[in-house]
Amino acid sequence: MSASAAIEPRIEPTSAQAARQAHILDAAEACFVRNGFHRTTMQDLAREAAMSPGNIYRYFDSKEAVVLGLAERDRERGAVLVEALERSGDRRGVLFGILAAYFTEMSRGAAILRLDLWAEATRNPAIGTMIERGDAEGRTWLIETFSAIAPGCDAAGLFAALAPLMKGIIVDRALDPHYEPGPAVRQLLALIDAGLAEKAAA
């Protein structure tokens, strides 16, 4: 059994159960941002959600399962944006809009949670597997999108050049309560524009 399979949520939700799961995930996000993943207990999650610990365990059998639930929720939200990109005739414009919105609208709490989970991934194999999977999916999607927009560009090389900047925006958003991501996002989009215009070396 894979690490990710071992931390799947316990039940397949009905609409009422899905609403309760969403409530638990909201409570978990608040706890993780306030206390950090490592210090947060399932009892803390239960108090934040105003539910009994036993009820929490009906939906998620561990903190790792809760984090997986948060990741899946983010993935579902991202899928809506991807669908818009695939329907649009202006793939470049929609891609730029998605990236600009993602980085400029990310809350400081969301950035803090991401940073905390990156740190936890260095010592928790289950979280590490989840982070690696999410990173791989994002990398594949961006490389494929770059290639579709500009066939012949060095899509993989472009992603490799951009990845540190994208992570840096998240780190700065987490560490600096007054951080303004606009200049970095504009630079990111300019680098993408330039990279899409270049042909890969023969």
TrEMBL record:
<dbReference type="GO" id="GO:0003700">
    <property type="term" value="F:DNA-binding transcription factor activity"/>
</dbReference>
<dbReference type="InterPro" id="IPR039538">
    <property type="entry name" value="BetI_C"/>
</dbReference>
<dbReference type="InterPro" id="IPR009057">
    <property type="entry name" value="Homeodomain-like_sf"/>
</dbReference>
<keyword id="KW-0238">DNA-binding</keyword>
<protein>
    <submittedName>
        <fullName>AcrR family transcriptional regulator</fullName>
    </submittedName>
</protein>
<keyword id="KW-0805">Transcription regulation</keyword>
<dbReference type="Pfam" id="PF00440">
    <property type="entry name" value="TetR_N"/>
</dbReference>
<feature type="domain" description="HTH tetR-type">
    <location>
        <begin position="18"/>
        <end position="78"/>
    </location>
</feature>
<dbReference type="GO" id="GO:0000976">
    <property type="term" value="F:transcription cis-regulatory region binding"/>
</dbReference>
<dbReference type="InterPro" id="IPR036271">
    <property type="entry name" value="Tet_transcr_reg_TetR-rel_C_sf"/>
</dbReference>
<dbReference type="Pfam" id="PF13977">
    <property type="entry name" value="TetR_C_6"/>
</dbReference>
<feature type="DNA-binding region" description="H-T-H motif">
    <location>
        <begin position="41"/>
        <end position="60"/>
    </location>
</feature>
<dbReference type="InterPro" id="IPR050109">
    <property type="entry name" value="HTH-type_TetR-like_transc_reg"/>
</dbReference>
<keyword id="KW-0804">Transcription</keyword>
<keyword id="KW-0678">Repressor</keyword>
<dbReference type="InterPro" id="IPR001647">
    <property type="entry name" value="HTH_TetR"/>
</dbReference>
